[in-house]
Specification:
The chain has one domain: TIM Barrel, CATH 3.20.20.370. The protein is 44% helix and 15% strand. It is built from ten helices and nine strands. The structure holds zinc ion.
């Protein structure tokens, strides 16, 4: 299937999951039951004007999303999430940590003014070996921010975390290479920006891109907290290396965003779990 057709199908499916969660009342039921508060890390990538690109959120939409969260007091920092995960603090129900992957230039040019306006305690995950590089592939459609630009983001309150050294899947490397990626990126970012790097986001972050072995490499490299990209909420007591996130896609509209940030896309985890299994089954069928 062509990429754009596949994206259209996926968008309809995501909206279906979000609306079904709302229509079935599961969000309302959960709120009424007052279960332990759920916290989510939202994942963004690029910002700007790129209709049809699910990896790019329009800057005006991003501003509306941040205003909506700020007005409700739902924006929390990495520190707050870490303490909440460790069971030490309580956070408002449906609190949100904003994370932005890849360190593309639109992080600085488009997102940063919005993050500043609403005092968003965001974390940006950058691959140290790609900082300042030109666009490398179709899935990185814009150049990467420079170290000076990242320093500017940091001065504005954005914490910079590691997204491996050169944005390759850690699960597809040897133990030694995965550890090297984790250590080198942490050291380089720390040296360039002058602050300790304590968190990591897995490149790609699908089920096929992390496992117990890579989690161990991150812990050995000194990371306190790490996120993958399988959908889900964060609850106290979860292992801090290997926390889920929820992706925000471009063009989904404010209603879907509000549902997503309140847990309507947590169920997408089933798709995240299923797709690599199907791919593996397909590979095994072909290998036979
Ligand atoms: Zn990435």
């Amino acid at each position: 299937m062509a990429t754009s057709a596949r994206q259209r199908v996926k968008r309809v499916a995501r909206q279906g999951v979000a609306m079904a969660s709302w229509a079935s009342g599961s969000l309302a039921v959960r709120a009424l039951l007052g279960t332990r508060p759920r916290v989510r890390a939202l994942t963004y990538h690029r910002f700007g004007d790129a209709p049809g690109d699910p990896w790019c959120v329009a800057t005006a939409d991003f501003a509306v999303q941040m205003r909506w969260l700020a007005e409700r007091g739902l924006l929390v920092s990495l520190d707050a999430v870490r303490d909440y995960d460790a069971g030490g603090t309580s956070l408002p129900h449906d609190s949100v940590l904003v994370t932005i992957d890849d360190g593309c230039r639109s992080l600085v040019e488009e997102a940063l003014p919005v993050l500043r306006e609403f005092a968003v305690p965001a974390v940006a995950y950058v691959s140290a070996g790609l900082v300042g590089a030109a666009a490398v592939a179709a899935d990185h459609a814009e150049p990467f921010a420079t170290w000076d630009e990242l320093a500017k983001a940091q001065e504005s309150g954005v914490e910079i975390g590691s997204h491996a050294f050169d944005h390759r899947s850690l699960a597809r490397m040897s133990d030694a290479e995965a550890l090297d990626q984790a250590v080198r990126s942490r050291e380089e970012i720390g040296a360039r920006l002058g602050t300790p790097v304590r968190s990591f986001a897995y490149p790609f972050g699908t089920r096929a891109d992390f496992d117990a072995r890579t989690n161990r490499a991150l812990a050995d490299a000194g990371y306190e907290i790490a996120f993958h990209s399988v959908h889900g909420s964060i609850r106290p007591g979860m292992a801090p290396i290997g926390l889920p996130r929820v992706k925000v896609e471009g063009g989904e509209g404010q209603r879907i965003f509000e549902l997503t940030s309140r847990g309507a896309m947590d169920a997408w985890r089933a798709v995240d779990e299923l797709v690599p299994r199907l791919a593996r089954a397909r590979r095994e069928t072909h290998a036979r």
